[in-house]
Amino acid sequence: MQLEIESRKKAQQELHDKVEHLHTTLESLPQVAFRADAFGRVTFVNKRWFQYSPCPATFPEVHPDDTSMENVWTDCIDSSQPMEQEMRIKEIKSGLFRFHLLRMIPVKNKTGIKSWVGTFTDIDDQKQEEKRKDEFLSIASHELKTPLTSIKAYIQLVERIESKQTESAIATYISRAHDQVCKLDNLIADLLDISKIENGKLKMNKKPFDMEKLIENVLETIHYTNNQHDLKIERQGDPIVKHVNGDAFRIEQVLINFFTNAIKYSPKADKVILHTAVKSNEVYIGVQDFGIGIPEQKKDRVFTKFYRVEESSVQFQGLGIGLYICAEIIKQHHGTYGVHSTLGEGTTFYFTLPIS
Ligand code: ADP
Fold first, then answer.
1. How far is the CA of 326 from the centre of ligand 1 (A)?
2. Which of 73, 141, 169, 283 has its CA 20 to 30 A from that of 24?
3. In this predicted model, what pLDDT tens digit does every residue of 61-107 receive, in sequence order?
4. Is residue 229's pLDDT more than 70?
5. Nearest Cα to 346, choosing from 287, 304, 300, 301?
6. How many domains does the chain contain in total?
7. Cβ neighbour number for residue 101 with a 10 Å cutoff
8. Is residue 6 part of a domain?
9. Domain span at residue 315?
10. Is the CB of 260 under 6 A from ligand 1?
11. 334 alpha carbon – ligand 1 mean position (Å)
């Protein structure tokens, strides 16, 4: 009996020490930290908590436009998985909402979840920095667009006058200037698209369109803009006879982007293959190249903003925004997109669009 009491006391002391240790750790963190029981009732808070909440039992006030704490708890308890959520919480002293990253980690024992450990990390400065960068991008691209439009118009005017005379050196220079201005125009259009995405203003103008006609236009554009003359574009798969509902201008932009990349990132190859397939409820379009390929672990990141694969970024110029815009366009069409690639052998970028 005495032995049993002793061992129970020892176990209790050990548990107490562990909890103490956890609380000391939470107290030493630079974040707001807390512990809650399996039902989401707060059992411990560190000192920083009081910058955002007057008492341990109340969670900091969350911005009305963000996910509420009740919803976060419901998700946590339902999933029993670690969770991350960005939200704005109100600082008591300033009365201002600051962006925080809430992380919740379940603490499990043999029978299931015993408690949760949570932290709020202040990411407000980072968020404000991102916002300033986006605003700068938006203003800069708008400001660049206006003078460029008039330069383009003047070049076209001179081109028209000059083309009346036969093959002069000046006509060649003007044509080159025109090409470069068009490149600049495309870059600025991409930058403008980025700021539209950030502001939720990249709107699709959807109506039924003929995909084969679109493909024809794209191939013609690629033919005129591609300076690798010996590159062939093959076609494999079914013709897309059904009309697709979408923004033809934006889908054309995606396909041109896939082709431009396929050509740019396969300087030694002599062909690119366009794959098309029609299933009962979707169309598939893929562009396959035989170029440098993408390392396996970097494949999924190519669709994120400003991402460029380091290995190739020195050799090939770019801003790392084309695929990000493509992904957004396809998402807005409720389609899917992706990439298959083998390093040194080639890459296929594809998208699918629903047909209904
Ligand atoms: P950019 O080409 O201007 O850098 P993108 O958003 O179009 O920007 O592409 C992002 C990155 O993905 C590129 O920098 C490149 O590293 C990689 N990438 C895109 N297309 C291909 C391709 N066909 N083959 C190999 N790498 C590619």
1. 12
2. 73
3. 999 999 999 899 888 988 889 999 999 999 999 999 999 999 999 99
4. no
5. 287
6. 3
7. 16
8. no
9. 207-354
10. no
11. 23
